[in-house]
Design a protein that fits this description.
InterPro entries: 6Pfruct_kin, 6Phosfructo_kin, His_Pase_superF_clade-1, His_PPase_superfam, P-loop_NTPase, PG/BPGM_mutase_AS
CATH topology of the largest domain: Rossmann fold
Number of strands: 16
Bound molecules: 2-acetamido-2-deoxy-beta-D-glucopyranose
Distance between the termini: 42 Å
Structural class: alpha/beta
Shape: globular
GO cellular component, one term: cytosol
Pfam family, one: 6PF2K
Enzyme class: hydrolase
Number of domains: 2
Order of helices and strands: EHEHHEHEHHEEHEHHEHEHHHEHEEEEEE
Largest sheet: 6 strands, mixed
Helix content: 25-40%
CATH class of the largest domain: Alpha Beta
EC number: 3.1.3.46
Oligomer: single chain
Radius of gyration: 25 Å
CATH architecture of the largest domain: 3-Layer(aba) Sandwich
Low-confidence stretches: 1-9, 438-457
């Protein structure tokens, strides 16, 4: 498998055109693809026609279902110019910003409109790929409506019951013109058709490598509600001495965190979900397995891909020792932590590449708890929270804290549950070899002071 970077897809540009009625999860899928590709350093962006419509037709005020009536001339005009603006901006982005994958997130895709987009793409050497989400499972649709109406800007001030009714009416209007894709009539187009999310997936003329990556990704998606728990291992003996790498055991306080972890998880699951079984993933290193050792769940898996960033020649050293022995390396790492690769070891970019299969498998999973290491956790978190590469290696992910992620249609809800167990800070600011976190602009806990945080958020 090749390394994913812009250079690899240099001349390939793909326009993913979403197709499908409202409440079919199109925006969710579109945003996930953008998040996934950006995480792999492939420049991608979503152009949401709904957003353009809200901006252009700001004077309309409320977007009730009548706006979407095909006989509403004014509505049609606005919707047409929204599509045109979105396409126009997308084309500019491809050309001026070297975009690689643009996603056109629109609803009203008739055969005629598809033909127009097709022509425009071909004229500009962009590969068009249609992605239809087709759905007749009423439960799925209602679940989507629930998600949309609670998060969509179109219904911010509406009562929930009214929003559902109005939204169903809007869908009815769209159904009047909707033409689905099929292998017989669209045999010359590149398309993916998802039937009831992933009950059935129809693929047609998937050609480039990039397209097949996208296909593989969407095939692994599901939309069942679930929680993803992330935790670093408990404090290790190396953390006490400030050494990096190695395969140390937990410290006494680290063991206390391990013993407390089952209780933290239970508390977060809540009374009604207390019998939920989580799958537990750890790395192959002692400290993560020790941290998982008191959890009552049967399914525990070890992944080599979850092992800590390999510090190569610096393994077992403290940051001070690295600064003294390899001053240039120390500076180079601070200057570009994402790309810096330890002598004989790894960079953050290397971790992202080895985590890709983990992300695919994670998308397939339901409730899960992952116990891993600081650098790996930063990369996983960056994927879920869309954190840019320049920032992710500097994110603070303290010890003895359980992070809960709940992916929703338009965002991911995060909560941090702190165990009332002190640990050393393992956070290193830029430009220093001292450890400690900045609080209110000053380093409050320089060096290896204790962070004693007992808040429960
Ligand atoms: C929606 O589809 C109808 C029927 O093909 C077409 O007349 C109309 O222009 C389309 N509107 C937009 C905004 O795409
Ligand atoms: C904490 O200790 C482990 C070794 O037990 C090490 O891999 C990790 O890098 C340490 N964290 C920091 C940032 O010092
Ligand atoms: C970890 O603990 C075990 C059992 O107490 C001991 O045998 C082993 O040597 C320890 N490992 C390290 C790296 O200290
Ligand atoms: C979780 O696993 C236990 C033991 O394997 C089982 O008794 C329990 O029913 C499971 N809980 C759920 C919600 O499936
Ligand atoms: C820690 O890991 C080493 C090798 O990776 C192993 O030999 C040792 O038994 C482990 N210690 C414990 C306590 O699990």
């Amino acid at each position: 498998m090749p390394v994913y970077s812009i250079s690899h897809v240099e001349n390939v540009r793909v326009c993913v055109v979403m197709v499908g009625l409202p409440a079919r999860g199109k925006s969710l899928i579109a945003q996930k693809i953008v998040r996934y590709l950006s995480w792999l350093s492939i420049k991608s962006k979503c152009f949401n026609v709904g957003g353009y419509r809200r901006e252009l037709a700001a004077d309309v005020g409320d977007f009730t279902a009548e706006f979407f009536d095909p006989t509403n001339k004014r509505g049609l005009q606005y919707r047409q110019s929204a599509v045109d603006s979105a396409i126009n901006d997308m084309m500019k982005w491809f050309v001026n910003e070297n975009g690689v994958v643009g996603i056109l997130d629109a609803t009203n895709s008739t055969k005629q409109r598809r033909a127009e987009i097709l022509k425009l793409c071909r004229d500009n050497y962009i590969e068009p790929m249609f992605l239809e989400s087709w759905c007749d499972d009423q439960d799925l649709i209602l679940q989507n409506i629930l998600d949309v109406k609670t998060t969509s800007p179109d219904y911010v001030n509406s009562e929930s019951e009214y929003a559902t009714k109005d939204f169903l009416k809007r869908i009815k209007f769209y159904e009047q013109n909707y033409e689905t894709m099929d292998v017989k009539h669209d045999s010359d187009l590149t398309f993916i058709k998802l039937v009831n999310v992933n009950q059935q997936i129809i693929l047609n003329r998937i050609e480039s490598y990039l397209e097949s990556r996208i296909v593989y990704y969407v095939m692994n998606l599901h939309i069942k509600p679930r929680s993803i728990y992330l935790s670093r291992h408990g404090e290790s003996e190396y953390n006490l001495t400030g050494q990096i790498g190695g395969d140390a055991n937990l410290s006494e306080r680290g063991w206390r965190y391990a013993k407390k972890l089952p209780e933290l998880v239970l508390k977060s699951l809540g009374e009604e979900n207390k019998h939920t079984n989580l799958t537990v993933w750890t790395s192959t290193l002692n400290r993560t397995q020790q941290t998982a050792s008191f959890l009552p769940y049967k399914k525990k898996l070890q992944w080599k891909a979850l092992d800590e960033l390999d510090a190569g020649e610096c393994d077992g050293m403290t940051y001070e020792e690295i600064e003294q022995k390899f001053p240039e390396d120390f500076k180079a790492r601070d200057d570009n932590k994402y790309e810096y690769r330890y002598r004989g070891g790894e960079s953050y970019r290397d971790i992202v590449i080895r985590l890709e299969p983990i992300i695919m498998e994670l998308e397939r999973q339901e409730n899960i708890l992952i116990i891993t290491h600081q650098a790996v956790l930063r990369c996983l978190y960056a994927y879920f929270m869309n954190v840019p590469q320049e920032e992710s290696p500097w994110m603070s992910i303290p010890l003895h804290t359980l992070i809960k992620l709940e992916p929703r249609a338009y965002s991911t809800i995060v909560s941090r549950i702190k165990a009332d167990i002190p640990a050393v800070s393992t956070y290193k600011e830029k430009g220093t070899s001292q450890l400690g976190e900045i609080v209110n602009g000053t380093t409050s806990s320089k060096s290896r002071d204790l962070i004693n945080d007992s808040k429960c958020v």
